[in-house]
Specification:
By secondary structure, the chain is mainly alpha-helical. It has nine helices and no strands.
Length: 148
């Protein structure tokens, strides 16, 4: 599966690089985003790339999404992971782990809107996150609550 994953990720990453926008990237960086790599793609571009590169098999799409989410240094891969992950392929514990792992409010908002609100345990996830002592995690709960 690793080579299949690499064969899926390589063209996707090349497309992200080809669409980079330095002005937007600099603005996002100055705005405080914590990612090492910010290519400045806009959300409609990320959605389009996610649709273009999404495997037809949900299990493959989930593996690709997990690999993209694991790249904590790149804004665009993290956001595309939220578009690619089929909610039915994500266990509640994994959904909670992703919500606790967000690095910015933008990630929390996109995760909540694109994925968590469609999860079968969305209300349970929101309650669990809201009970956290971590302000960033509570923001993820708030983001999800807005979309329920």
């Amino acid at each position: 599966m690793a080579s299949d994953l690499t064969s899926m990720m390589t063209p996707l990453r090349k497309s992200v690089y080809a669409l980079r926008n330095g002005v937007i990237a600099d603005t996002l960086r100055k705005g405080g985003l914590p990612h090492t790599y910010i290519f400045g793609l806009q959300l409609p571009q990320l959605k389009q790339l996610s649709e273009e590169y999404r495997p037809s098999d949900d299990k493959e799409a989930a593996e690709l999404a997990r690999a993209l989410w694991a790249d904590r240094d790149c804004r665009e891969t993290r956001l595309m992971a939220c578009h690619l992950m089929p909610p039915a392929e994500m266990e509640t514990e994994e959904a909670l782990a992703w919500a606790r792992d967000t690095r910015s409010r933008e990630e929390s908002d996109i995760l909540a809107f694109r994925l968590l609100r469609r999860h079968r345990a969305a209300a349970e996830i929101e309650k669990e996150l809201a009970a956290s002592d971590d302000e960033r995690v509570r923001y993820s709960a708030e983001a999800l609550r807005r979309f329920l």
